[in-house]
Every structure is written in structure tokens, then in C-alpha cells.
Write a structure and sequence with these properties.
The structure is a single chain. Helix 1 runs antiparallel to helix 5. This protein has a 4-stranded antiparallel beta sheet with strand order 1-2-3-4, with no helix packed on it. Strands 5-6 form a two-stranded antiparallel sheet. The longest helix is centred in the C-terminal third of the chain and has 40 residues. The protein is α+β, with helices and mostly antiparallel strands. It starts with 19 loop residues before the first strand and ends in a 14-residue tail after the last helix. A hairpin with a 5-residue loop joins strand 2 and strand 3. The chain contains 11 helices and 6 strands.
Length: about 350
């Protein structure tokens, strides 16, 4: 059962000390011996259980793990992990504000595409633009009435809101009136060097490349993309071993222990070590986790490199297939089945007829 980290806290009325910190009870050696967990989330303030805590020992009396709490410890006696995103929160907020301001500036700049200055009434101007519904006689009468004086012109502007062409506003002003549109700010549109610098800083804090964060590969060649992917892969591998693999190994150990306890595993070799003695449980549960595929930029080059590494004994099939997110046992078993079916159907493939000889 997954528990929200906000529920792990020190109960009300208990004073934190060197043996109790942030809901974690420790022994004299600093090892956790138990956890205080709220029965409900702190934000569920209407729920009476949110004001009650339950103490969960870290292990059963016979050693079975009850609470799995995994985080990257940077300093001694640390009880909580620190996300990489914490150091980039300011830049993330700035980038979001920058995009909003740039979008608002674009909207303001596009609000008025043009303005018209004329001594004639707006109806006549609209007719000249092809947007009016007046006949020639009506236009003549409007022009004649306008000649009566400036007052008539002012009255003709009453209630006029302007004209739109494909959604773009074109206002019409009184004679002598001018409109000067001033941009809301300086700077280019989205994707400028300023925004890119923010994204690069955020990507560096997250341990990934700029291209993977922004999905912008327009200025990336094969070498730079390969270098960026390699750096990201190293970071992700360290994260996988420190967090994901440890969690998966804990779960596998608990499953294996239960399987032995219930007698579901009864086909061990003769004189196999007792699972319950000493450190045999750790030996039985020793495992490695493959994880997701690394991905390939140029499949031909990277496949040739993998074949050469295997040829000169610099790697193994297990390692190379793990890069593709595959289990070598399953791949070999499937290849064996396919080979048997091909032989039964009289199908053959020349091993020399491949792209490696190109």
C-alpha cells in the first residue's frame, strides 16, 4: 500500500529529538525502527482520522520489512529526499511568466492591424473598402450632408465601433485623430534565446538534456544528440539503481519470502541452502532490473557498434539486449523457436547476407 509522504509526520504532542524526526523513530545507531503515519491525509481536516497516528514498526519480529522508505540521502541523518526540481522552481516560474507576457504582447500587437484617417464619414470609408451596403446615391447624399459642417461629421461617428476584416479590427477616427500603437514590451516571440537559457538551466537541474526537455531538435546533429542522450542515460541509470531497483528488489524479496513460507517453491536443487538461515535470503533474492529501452539515434551505427563489442568480448548479450529493454533469455528462447519453425518449413537465412558487410 502506497502512503502519501505528507502522512508521515510526528504526532501532535510528541517532541522531536535525535531519536524521532519527521515521524521516523530511530535507534542509537540512526537506523529507523518505526514510522508514525497519520490515518488520513492532513488536508482531510474534516476527517477525525487525520488527527490520529499509527506507529508501524519497520520490521516484523522475525525480520520481514513492513515499511519501505526510499530516498536519495545527500547528508547524514537525512529523513526526506530533495527533488531536483526544487533548485529550478524560480526559473520554471520565470519561464512560465515569460511565455504569458510574450503571448499577451503578441495579442496586443495584433489587436489593431491598421487605422484609417479620413475627412469622410465612416460609412463612406466602409463602402470604399467593399464592406458597406450603400448605393451610389446614398454615398452622394452622405457626402453632401457632410459638407454642411463639421458637426454633422461628429454626429455621424456616434455609435460607430469600427470594422473587421477576417477578425482584425480597423478603427475609424474623427478627422485629425491619430492612433500610435506602442508595443507592450521588447523581445522576440516564444523560443528566443532567453527562454532557451531558462530551459537549459532547468534541464541541467533535472539531469536531462535541453533537447529532451524542450522537444526541440532543430539545432541538433547526431554527435550532440548522442552526447546529450548519453549524459541523460547515465543520470537515469543512477536514479534507477538508487530508487527504482531498490524498491523493486524490496518487493521481490517480500514476494519470495512469502512464496517460501507458503511452500510454493519446492523444486530447489538437492542440498540447496536454507532460505531462512543467515544471509541466504539476500542471496536468493539477488537480481538485476532491465528497465526501459535506451533508444537509438542511428540504428545502423549503434547496432554495428554492439556487434563489434560482442565480437571482441567487450560486453555480453545480456548487457546489449538490456540496452534495448529486452531479456536475453526470452530473446534466445524466441530465436530458438523461430529457428525450429524455419527449419521445419525449409526456410534458411544466409548469416553472411547482412548489413554488417556493407
Amino acid at each position: 500500500q502506497m502512503v502519501d509522504l505528507d502522512r508521515l509526520s510526528t504526532p501532535a504532542g510528541m517532541i522531536e529529538n535525535r531519536f524521532l524526526r519527521a515521524g521516523i523513530a530511530k535507534n542509537v545507531h540512526g537506523a529507523p525502527v518505526g514510522y508514525y503515519v497519520r490515518r488520513a491525509h492532513p488536508n482531510d481536516w474534516l476527517d477525525a482520522d487525520s488527527y490520529q497516528w499509527k506507529f508501524i514498526p519497520s520490521h516484523k519480529p522475525w525480520g520481514r520489512v513492513q515499511m519501505i522508505h526510499i530516498f536519495e540521502s545527500i547528508r547524514p541523518e537525512q529523513t526526506r529526499g530533495v527533488a531536483e526540481m526544487a533548485s529550478a522552481l524560480t526559473e520554471t516560474k520565470i519561464a512560465r511568466s515569460f511565455r504569458k507576457v510574450a503571448l499577451q504582447r503578441a495579442i496586443v500587437d495584433a489587436t489593431y492591424a491598421a487605422s484609417i484617417e479620413s475627412e469622410l464619414p465612416s460609412e463612406v470609408i466602409f463602402q470604399a473598402l467593399g464592406a458597406g451596403n450603400m448605393s451610389a446615391e446614398e454615398v452622394a447624399r452622405v457626402v453632401e450632408s457632410y459638407a454642411a459642417g463639421y458637426l454633422n461629421t461628429v454626429n455621424s461617428y456616434a455609435g460607430v465601433k469600427g470594422h473587421k476584416i477576417d477578425g482584425v479590427k480597423i478603427p475609424v477616427f474623427l478627422p485629425g485623430t491619430k492612433l500610435n500603437i506602442r508595443p507592450a514590451g521588447h523581445g522576440g516571440p516564444l523560443g528566443t534565446e532567453f527562454e532557451q537559457s531558462l530551459l537549459r538551466y532547468i534541464a541541467a537541474n533535472l539531469g536531462i538534456s535541453y533537447e529532451q526537455l524542450s522537444r526541440d531538435y532543430s539545432k541538433t546533429n547526431y554527435s550532440s544528440a548522442k552526447a546529450a542522450m548519453t549524459e541523460t542515460w547515465k543520470f537515469m541509470q543512477s536514479r534507477k539503481k538508487a530508487i527504482a531497483d531498490r524498491f523493486a528488489s524490496h518487493v521481490f524479496m517480500l514476494w519470495l519470502e512469502e512464496a517460501f513460507a507458503k511452500g510454493h517453491i519446492d523444486s530447489l536443487p538437492r542440498n540447496a541452502p536454507n532460505f531462512w538461515e543467515g544471509l541466504n535470503r539476500d542471496a536468493y533474492a539477488a537480481c538485476e532490473w532491465i528497465g526501459a529501452s535506451r533508444g537509438q539515434i542511428d540504428e545502423l551505427k549503434e547496432t554495428q557498434a554492439a556487434v563489434l563489442r560482442i565480437k571482441y568480448h567487450l560486453t555480453t548479450y545480456e548487457d546489449e539486449l538490456a540496452r534495448l529493454g529486452k531479456d536475453w533469455r526470452r530473446v534466445f528462447a524466441q530465436r530458438e523457436r523461430e529457428q525450429q519453425i524455419m527449419e521445419a518449413r525449409g526456410l534458411t537465412v544466409d548469416p553472411q547476407d547482412n548489413m554488417m558487410n556493407a
